[in-house]
Each structure stands twice: as C-alpha cells, then as structure tokens.
Amino acid sequence: MLRKKSKSPTWNRAGRPENVSFLPVRKTVANAVAATLLIAFAGSSFGATPPTSQVDTTHLAVTDTEVIVGQLHSSTGTMAISETGAIEAERLAIDQINAMGGVLGRKIKVIQEDGGSDWPTFAEKAKKLLESDHVAAIFGCWTSASRKAVLPVLERDNGLLYYPTFYEGLEQSKNVVYTGQEATQQVFAGLDWVAKTKGSKTYYLIGSDYIWPRTTMKLARKYIETVLHGTVVGEEYAALGSTDFGSTINKIRLKKPDVIYAAVVGGSNVSWFKQLKAAGITGKDHTLLTLSVTEDEANGIGGENLLGFYSAMKYFQSLDTPGNKEFVKKFKAKWGAGAPIGDVTQAGYEGPWLWKAAVEKAGSFDTDKVVKAEESGQISFDAPEGMVYLESNHHLKTRLRIGEWRADGQADIVYTSDYIMPNPFPKGY
Amino acid sequence: MGGYSISDLWSIVVMQGFSGLSLFSVLLLMALGLAIIFGQMGVINMAHGEFMTIGAYTIYLFSKVTEQYFPALMPYYFVIAIFAAFGIAFAAGYLVEYLLIRHLYKRPLDTLLATWGLSLIMQQIFRTVFGAREVSATLPDWLMGSWKPTPDIDIPLNGLFVMGISVVVTAAVILFLYRSTWGLRVRATTQNRVMAGSVGINTKKIDRVTFAVGCGIAGIAGATFTTIASTGPTSGSLYIVDTFLVVVFGGAGSVVGTVSSAFSIAQAQSILTFFLTNAMGKVVTLLTIIIILMLRPEGLFTSKVRK
C-alpha cells in the first residue's frame, strides 16, 4: 500500500503523452526550428545549455535561463523548531549551485511554501507546487506524517521529493529520494557499537508515542533479542508533548539497565534530559544512546544536561574533514554563527546536490528520466559527511557515527561505521 | 517484586513519592494563575500558556545578559529574573485586558476564541523575535543535579525549587485574595458585580488587575519551568490542557479546590504511570476525572461565581 504504483509513466502530469514519436519530416522541421532558435538566442555559452524543448518535455517550469523548484517545510507552527535547519541548508545548497552556473545551465529559482506543521496543508501546498507552479522538484517535509500526506499527491502528479529526515523506513516511492537514514541504518550499527564497547546486556527502550519511535524500537528490540542476545527490561512510550518523566525515571532506576535507548522528540526531549540529570542519571555512570538528539536539539536541551550521553547519527557538526569545515563555515556565514547544524540539516543540504547530479545525468528535468538516473546506482555526492551513494531503492548508502556530547552542545565522534546499505524493508522484522 | 532489595524498594518509594509531589507543584503553579482568571472572572484564557512562555523567555534573556555582562552574578540572576518574569507578564496581561478582554466580558464564550487567536499571535511573535528553535537558559549551578540523603536516593534540586516556588506563590495568592483589601474587592466583584459597583468599588480596575495578576503568576510558572522543561515558541501549548483540567476539576473560583485537584491528579498520574505504562496512566486518570465531573459537574469544590 505504501508503494502505490503511480500512473502509467507514459503520461505526464498535464495529461499529454510523453513518448509520441514524430514523423521524420516533422522531426526535421522541429530541428530546423531549434536551429533557428539557436542562432537567434544562443550566446557564447550555448554549448553548456541544451535547449528547453530538449530538457523539458513535460511542461515543467523550465525556461532557457531558469528552473523553478519548490521548498515545502513548516516555517510556522510546532515543527518550525526542527524544520528551520533544513530550510536553511537547502537554500545554501541552491545558492551554491547557482553560483556554479546552475543545473543544465539554468539558475534555480525557489518557491517556498509553508506547511504550517499541519499535514493536510502539506498535501495542499504540494498540489499547488506541482499543479500550478509546475516545479521540477520539491525539497521538503520533515515528519513522517507530512511525507505520508504529500506522497499520494506526488505519485498522482508524478513529482519529485527530496526528503531529509532520518525515519522509520518501510517506504519506498519512485517519486521520493530519502536523504536521511532509514531505521536499520541508524539502529543496528549503533546497537552493535554499544554492545561491543560497553558490554551491555540489558536495555531500556523509551520513545515518544508515534510511528517513528514505535517502529524503531520494534526493530531495536528484535535486534537486541535475536542478534545481540541481550534483554529488554522495559519499553515505554511517552505522549507527544509530555513534560513529566519522574515516574519513568524511577522505573529505570529500579530496573538498572546497562543501556537507556531513547527516541524522545520535541519539547518532551528537553524535559526528559533535564529531569534525568536532576535525578542523578548522568553520562558519568550511565550509558544512554539516543536516536533523536542532533545539534539542533542539543541547543534547546543544554549541553550540560547531555554531557557524556551518546547520539547515533550519520553526521555531526564537529566532523573533522576539510569538506565539512568548509560547509560549516559557509553555513555560518549565511545563517549566523549561532546556527547549529544537525543531522537533518546536513541531509537537507544533500537534496539539491543529488537532484542536480541526477538531472545532469539524465540530461533532462523530466521526472521519469530523472528517476531513471536516480535509480541507476551511479549518483553520488561528496557531502559534508563524506561520500554518499544513491542506491536504486532511493535511499543513501552512508556511514553511521556515534557522537559523545560535550557541555558546549557539540559532540565528539567516538565511532564511525563502515558504509551501510539502506534496507527500508528489513526481512523478519 | 522479586530480585530487588528492601533498600532499593525503599529508595524508589521515596523518590516516587517525591516525583508525585513535584508533579503536584508543577500542576499547581500552572493552574493558580488560571484559577484566578477563570475562577474569579469567568474568562477562558487560552493564551495562558503563552504568558508562561513570556516568563520562560525572560529567564532566557536574563541568563544571556548576565552571562555576557555580569558573569559574577550568575548564581543569583535567577531570583531577580523570576520577579522580572512576573512584572513583564503582568504588564502584558494588563495590556491584553485593556485592548481585548474587557470588550468581551458579556460574551464569555467569545473570550475562548479571542484568547486562542491571541495565543497564536503570541507564538508567532516569539518565533519572529527569538527564532523557531528552542533555546536553553544557562541555569545557576545550585539548581542543577540532585541532593543525596542516602547513596541510593536522588532528590532532584530543580524539583525542590519548583516546590518551594509553588508554596510561596500559593501562600501569596491566598493572602492576596483573602487577607487584602484588594482581594476583598475582587471577591465582592466576583459574587455580585452590580452590587460591588454600587458600593464604590471600581470594578473595571479590579478586572484589569485581577487578569494581570493571573498572567503574572503564569509568568512565574513559566520562569520556574525553565528548570525542568523546554523553552520554545510553542512550549506554552504543552501545558494548557493540563491547566484547564486542574482548574475545572478543582471547581472554578476556589483556591482550595485548585490545590486539592492538582494534588489528586498529580498523585494518581504519577503512581499509575509507575505501575502501568505512560499512556495507560494518563487514560485511567482522565477517565476517573470524567466520571467524577459527571457526578459533580461544578468540580470538587464549588463557590458562587459571577454568572
């Protein structure tokens, strides 16, 4: 059901057939017209800029100098806290691409829409972007709920979405590229690491009560029990927005798990860590591995409350590579020195670059051709996190890193995994 | 409970008892301001959470300024900032009453819509001024960590602090309402506005100050909660449901009712959450409240309020 087939690919979203072959005579005429246009409009740089008729056969918003893309995040409402970073990073990537000459010789112009943290609004705005703005691609969504709302629209109108958040997996659409990690990439390697370095046997799982933590914890429990031969001594879900963790923390104290494995999100996350610290559970004598704290969240929680705890992410701002240092410098120059860069922010930055690579490989903005390029297995990008490879299942092959939090809200990377193949539909889970 | 030693269990009982008390003081602090506004004036203030957020951001600003210019004062700024939080939220409440609420006293249900709209406006203002990201005030050291009476027991210092503040604020509210001339006038206006006006009480001024005091207390609550929870544009909305729950369950217009309602909800929730799961704990608590409200629609304690 998740992988609903889109409409027959020979029909574009305007309802016109895409692959009607022209008669030889008409083709000659068309070529002649193109040649005339070439003489009429082409500047010296024409060689790099193929004519619009060639790169866009499906009536997308592409002109000889410009291509329009959409950006669809929440800049208002409760999710604005999280989505701001992705918005900023996507803008930075687009600016950089434009400074390099754009995509297929065309400058990227952005139409930004606000999903307002409301899922039906996301679907509506996606429809607007695809059906009246005819954008070539959309960079957007953050929560799984917003992605699920947008998905039917994307598949009906045959649009493209680049989705930046690490998420629960169990989804693959030809119209979406997932630049964040799916659950198996984030969970298994992290658990392996903690079992190996800390010799942990007992685990306490705690998450917020919605699809991502629940699916993730289900994977984690199975992995702990069957592969690591450990025990899950407690599994608990707190309502979204819940601010009281006193009783939960007492239960954890009673069970004395070797590892607290956490996926609490949003405002609750701050309460959770502040109350842990106040209850005397700190990184000094407890091991806590979380899946939901990036530099963005650390900023709100306060580094002193996280000190010594671990996060499993594919990217940390402190990553010590020339590529990342350059990225951090550019990001801060554009958005201010105080702006933290988290995992999702960096994944957002990858979106426009991967799209550019796919479009250039396809030699066209047409959705079906771009999708074919995406699925070719030959798209890669030298991202701040290191090389990432777009696999034929629309997810990225990446590494997982474990960061140990410092008091200043930055993390020391204590472990980097090998490349992990994305596997959105793990068998046996 | 096999496998646990007696001392383990004892320390859990102590800490669990404390966590119930600490939730009680959180609920009480949230609800006091609203109890005054809703209870005494009948105004349904949906923006209560946002006045709490004002208090939280006040702490954040004070912490930043102190860190920047008076680092030596870091251990003490929090106390001053709490008074400032009261002052700023009081002023904001005063203004809101003047511009918005006073035009709606005759239409109590419309205050619900108007203040809800106000809460959205305030959230967006916070977002524009402070940014959409959550912020964190640097707390003084004496508020962090825990007190260990025995090696197994950790009593959270921030929990103790919240408790202390809520005792002080409750006492102040009771003194204000029942021992001051001003409180006498407030109660008179609550019971019979026309009669109160005819004996020379300036009921409009009473309304304005009562509303502002309620908002000011919300500011204190928000300031205090920076020690245990998040500070962001929408933090306030996390509290609004629980706040109304406490006030309605306790019975509008009764401080005693608010206190006992906060106590019973907190203890029920805390104990049930310990033995059941988080979600079930909440479900059972809410079901019980619904049943009690069906039997006693006016809440636990009732007093005559302005109709």
UniProtKB/TrEMBL annotation, chain A:
One of its Pfam families is Peripla_BP_5
Q: Per its UniProt record, what PANTHER family does this chain match?
A: ALIPHATIC AMIDASE EXPRESSION-REGULATING PROTEIN, PTHR47628
- Quote the protein name from its UniProt record: Aliphatic amidase expression-regulating protein
Organism annotation: mine drainage metagenome
Automatic annotation (TrEMBL), chain B:
UniProt cross-references to InterPro entries, sorted A to Z:
ABC_transp_permease (IPR001851), ABC_UrtB_bac (IPR017779), BCAA_transport_permease (IPR052157)
Q: How does it sit in the membrane?
A: Multi-pass membrane protein
Which keywords does this chain's UniProt record carry?
Amino-acid transport, Cell membrane, Membrane, Transmembrane, Transmembrane helix, Transport
What terms describe the molecular function in GO for this protein? transmembrane transporter activity
Q: Where in the cell is it found?
A: Cell membrane
Any one Gene Ontology BP term:
amino acid transport
- TM stretches of this protein: 20-39, 51-70, 76-101, 113-135, 155-178, 209-230, 236-259, 271-295
Q: Which GO terms describe its cellular component?
A: plasma membrane
Stored NCBIfam families: urea_trans_UrtB
The family this protein is said to belong to: Belongs to the binding-protein-dependent transport system permease family. LivHM subfamily.
- What protein does this entry describe? High-affinity branched-chain amino acid transport system permease protein LivH
Q: Which organism is it from?
A: mine drainage metagenome
Q: What is the lineage of its organism?
A: unclassified sequences, metagenomes, ecological metagenomes
